């Protein structure tokens, strides 16, 4: 078969970008690509911010500093955007799509911000926009939602989609470390940034949940805020309580149908039964658990980050785009369902775990229990631990409306006998089988 | 977009076939299919063995009894073969492929028997041959190996690919049932056949391992025998020993590279660390764990059987074949690597668990240990349990060559002091992260 050369440009040469260049220039790998009938891929340029920096593995004649010019090249077939951030990445991508150049990106923040508009732009100009690496690193979950599960009615998607927080929570579980120590270790190992807030405050996971939801349900990607709670208030005592009760604590991103036309999207810590498949996702691994009406539960697990796994996901997208290019097609963008409405997290019900540091004095349990009762939150079990300054009450509630639990926490904080209130953690039921 | 009608015929109307008919005739689902730009699908006939049997959900005018005629129809685009068995299924499929009709099948036995030849026949006549449902029911694992992981160098594939045996082993683990009771319960629930040998003797899993290996490594599908050991010799005492040591026992199908050009394919019970993702695969669920050089470990989990999940996998293949039909293409068949050679299971090394019923008399441990020593199998730990008639020795070995362990078992059986020898179970190392 005599197929035309597909010309690829890359913006960004960090871990993922340089791994991708290696994969593209690897001669044994290239043979495999040809095998897959995509035709030869030619790397025409790699745009970097600092052209003076030496980069091993990237031929000097491919390095350029003018990313905008690369995006606007006449002879480009596929632009790979790995710079990250909203601007100027959006500008480069729009430039390429407007010229009918297909785009592959790993930019979850940008996709969550304006993915629907970009997908429409791609479609209008006969180009592809693929972003497999934006969720779950090397796990081919977006492709599965796009193709294998196309036509399936999905009811719920639950994901452990942030490796940094999963590493920290796994450490807290396996070593009984507290949050600060586990975070410091994650930073020392390069799993967490010096400023970890994008991870531990769940901004990263929230963007990924929006992307999963758009493919699973057809919700729009236009920069909406979704309910988001990180792991900074999870304590080692909570992890230990969960373990004794047969649960593990994970930061869970959830997108699910509520009634006929409601969709709830949220990120929060959750207690998961220890025999649930998601409970076995350790360290920096990621996993996405999908509940479909026909296919039953399905789970994808793999490395959620790392230059090489993520670069293989990007390469998969490049190959798909190249195949489409050769056959003169482009993929239909995910369909948007405008009849859907967003359900506030406060409207949903769940069982909750809650731990409260109290002053060890007579009557404190009565006043705390009174606050639960005044909001109609029914207590399933209570445990008191520690004495004096260290006294703590741990509660498991029956099914309760989230807004009622939030109101309970608000009123508890006003009690003189309450010192501080820990994480408010939803308890997830089974569903592994 | 004005796309031609794609005409589909189905052979077989069991659980999977009738679920597929429902999916194809469901009007809301049909809209989703059109959305996916495949064009309209028209069901032209469903061939059944017994035409007099009433079948709910299948319009009477679609039912026919002449499967051969359906396979040879001039106006067919896609033939779905769900009859199972080698003949006459092979004959129907060859008839269709020779006429350029694409084929979708769930027939693992037939694919293991002659998949390479059938794939070549499809390619020669410009048709597709898809068989996603042959492995892992509703889990889109074959598509992932074909597309997402194309070009990746895979080192090992390990799967829990038989739901019946996983149900039995899960029951033995959760309820401490013995093998016979767990099997009887599986039969009562319809998870196991009256004659369970295809499942419990691992014929079913062996066929699936061959299919996984062909896609992961390029080994041929031409009816080779591979090393196969079922679960009939696993006892509740083994399951309990594993639990105390931090393991669970699973029936594992393995295909892996050995050195530069060797491939080992085998099915056997194995002790898996309880924190390994495969250990969390309960009941009738299936999972496939793939270790790639670049992508790192990846796992797919889902329902391995059941009419509706399997039918969704078949439908996914039908949609892929339809899309190719509309665009006048067909997929390139998996490439065969003729430089590979099969490595006998006996040549590989592993740690082993072995339990031996012995006569409780002086000197028995010395003579048993002597047999291990004579074959160079080094003992890592030993545990004696029971007394008199019930005395049992449980051993964990260090890394040992499988053929040496087999020779040890052979010689142990000759000892007067040995009553019987239980399952010989490989111990798998970690790898979840």
Class from helix and strand fractions of chain A: alpha/beta
Main sheet attributes: strand count, strand direction, barrel closure of chain A:
12 strands, mixed
- At CATH level 3, the topology of the largest domain in chain A is Rossmann fold
Q: What would the principal axes of the Cα set say about the shape of chain A? A: elongated
Q: What is the highest CATH level, the class of the largest domain in chain A?
A: Alpha Beta
Count of helical segments of chain A?
A: 14
How far apart lie the N and C ends of chain A? 46 Å
Q: Oligomerization state of this entry?
A: homodimer
Radius of gyration of chain A: 24 Å
Low-confidence blocks of residues of chain A: none
What does this 3D model show about the protein?
Chain A is α/β, with parallel strands linked by helices and 433 residues long. The first copy, chain A, is 35% helix and 26% strand. Chain A has helices spanning 15-25, 27-35, 67-71, 89-98, 108-124, 141-148, 163-174, 179-188, 197-200, 203-217, 236-244, 307-326, 364-374, 402-412; strands spanning 6-11, 41-47, 63-64, 78-81, 102-105, 129-130, 154-160, 227-228, 247-258, 262-273, 285-292, 296-303, 341-342, 349-358, 379-385, 392-397, 400-401, 418-427. Chain A contains 14 helices and 18 strands. Chain A folds into three domains: 6-137 and 307-326, Rossmann fold; 152-302, Dihydrodipicolinate Reductase, domain 2, CATH 3.30.360; 346-427, ACT domain (Alpha-Beta Plaits, 2-Layer Sandwich). In chain A, strands 7, 8, 9, 10, 11, 12, 13, 14, 15, 16, 17 and 18 form a twelve-stranded mixed sheet that branches. Chains A and B meet through helix 2, helix 6, strand 11, strand 12 and helix 12 of A and helix 2, helix 6, strand 11, strand 12 and helix 12 of B. Strand 12 (296-303) of chain A pairs antiparallel with strand 12 of chain B.
């Amino acid at each position: 078969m005599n197929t035309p050369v597909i010309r690829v440009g890359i913006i960004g040469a960090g871990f993922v970008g340089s791994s991708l260049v290696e994969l593209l220039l690897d001669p044994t790998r290239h043979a495999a690509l040809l095998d897959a009938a995509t035709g030869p891929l030619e790397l025409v340029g790699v745009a970097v911010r600092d052209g003076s920096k030496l980069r091993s593995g990237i031929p000097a004649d491919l390095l350029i500093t003018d990313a905008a010019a690369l995006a606007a090249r006449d002879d480009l077939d596929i632009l790979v955007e790995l710079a990250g951030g909203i601007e100027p990445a959006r500008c480069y991508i729009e430039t390429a799509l407007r010229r009918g150049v297909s785009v592959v990106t790993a930019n979850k923040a940008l996709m969550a911000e304006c993915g629907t508009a970009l997908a429409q732009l791609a479609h209008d100009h006969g180009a592809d926009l693929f972003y497999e690496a934006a969720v779950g690193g090397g796990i081919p979950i977006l492709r599965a939602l796009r193709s294998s599960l196309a036509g399936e009615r999905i009811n719920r998607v639950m994901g452990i989609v942030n490796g940094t927080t999963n590493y920290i929570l796994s450490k807290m579980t396996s070593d009984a470390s507290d949050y600060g120590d586990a975070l410091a270790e994650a930073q020392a190992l390069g799993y967490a940034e010096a400023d970890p807030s994008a991870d531990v405050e769940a901004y990263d996971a929230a963007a990924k949940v929006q992307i999963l939801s758009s493919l699973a349900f057809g919700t729009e990607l236009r920069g909406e805020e979704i309910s988001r709670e990180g792991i900074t208030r999870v304590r080692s005592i909570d992890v230990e309580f969960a373990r004794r009760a047969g649960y593990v604590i994970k930061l869970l991103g959830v997108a699910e149908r509520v009634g006929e036309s409601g969709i709830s999207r949220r990120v929060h810590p959750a207690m998961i039964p220890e025999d649930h498949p998601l409970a076995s996702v350790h360290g920096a691994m990621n996993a996405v658990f999908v509940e479909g009406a026909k296919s039953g539960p399905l789970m994808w697990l793999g490395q959620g980050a790392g230059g090489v796994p993520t670069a293989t996901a990007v390469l998969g997208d490049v190959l798909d785009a190249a195949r489409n290019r050769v056959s003169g097609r482009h993929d239909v963008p995910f369909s948007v369902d405008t009849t859907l409405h967003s359900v506030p997290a406060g409207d949903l019900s769940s069982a909750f775990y809650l731990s409260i540091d109290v002053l060890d004095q007579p009557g404190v349990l009565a006043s705390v229990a009174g606050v639960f009762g005044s909001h109609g939150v029914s207590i399933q079990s209570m445990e008191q631990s520690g004495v004096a300054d260290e006294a703590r009450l741990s509660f498991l509630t029956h099914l309760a409306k989230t807004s009622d639990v939030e109101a309970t926490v608000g009123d508890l904080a006003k009690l003189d006998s309450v010192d501080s209130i820990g994480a408010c953690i939803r308890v997830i039921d089974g569903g592994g089988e």
